[in-house]
Amino acid sequence: MSGKGKIDSIEKEKRIYQISLLLRRKPMSFIVEFMRQNWGLEKAQAYRYIASARKEWQKYYANIKSSGIGYHIAQVRDLKDKAFANEDIRLALDITKEEAKLMGIYPAEKHEITERKVIILGRKKEGEEKDKEEKGNE
Fold first, then answer.
1. Residue 126: which residues within 8 A CB-CB, separation 6 or more?
2. Closest by alpha carbon to 35, among 23, 19, 20, 21?
3. What pLDDT, on the 0 to 100 scale, is given for residue 138?
4. pLDDT tens for residues 13-26?
5. Residue 44, Cβ neighbours under 10 Å: how many?
6. Which of 5, 33, 85, 99 is 20 to 30 Å from 68 by CA-CA measure?
C-alpha cells in the first residue's frame, strides 16, 4: 500500500507493529527511510508512526512489569522459535528445559552441601574490643 490516500485502522495497526519491531534493532534513519520507500510517507508522518510505536512499547513494558515472570517466559519462547527456525533441535530442547524450570514444572537442581561453617553476624561496639583486651591482660 502506498502513501496515496487514507488507510484503514487494520493497516495502520500492522504498520505500527512493524515499526515497533524495527525500533528494537534499527536506527531511526533506517526506519524513516523504510517508511518513505515502502509506504510513501513524509518525514513528519513517519515520526508520528514512530511515536505511536513507542507508545505501544510503553504499554508492552507496563504489562511485562505487572506480569513478572511472564516476560522471561515470553523471551525464552522467542528464543525457542528461533532455534526451531534454524532447525537446531538440540538447542530447542535445552531452551524447553529452561522454560520448564522457569515455570516450576522441571525438578529443581539439587546442590550438595559439603562444608558447614558458622557465621556470626553482628557488629562490635568501639569500647568492647578495648574492654576485652584489658580483661585479658589482668
1. none
2. 19
3. 55
4. 999 999 998 988 88
5. 7
6. 85
The predicted pLDDT at position 55 comes to 93
- Decide if pLDDT at 108 tops 60: yes
Alpha helix locations (H) across 24-117? 28-39, 43-67, 69-85, 89-103
Query: Residue 103: is its pLDDT beyond 80?
Result: no
Would you list the DSSP string of 62-76?
A: HHHHHHTHHHHHHHH
Pull the grid cell for residue 116.
Answer: 558447614
Is residue 100 within 8 Å of residue 106, measured between CB atoms?
Answer: yes
CA distance 4 to 40: 8
**What letter represents residue 53's amino acid?**
A
Whole-structure pTM value? 0.46
pLDDT tens per residue across span 42-68: 999 999 999 999 998 888 777 766 667
C-alpha cell at 113: 552441601
Please list, in sequence order, all residues whose beta carbon lies within 8 angstroms of the beta carbon of residue 20, skipping any fewer than 6 positions away: 53, 54, 56, 57
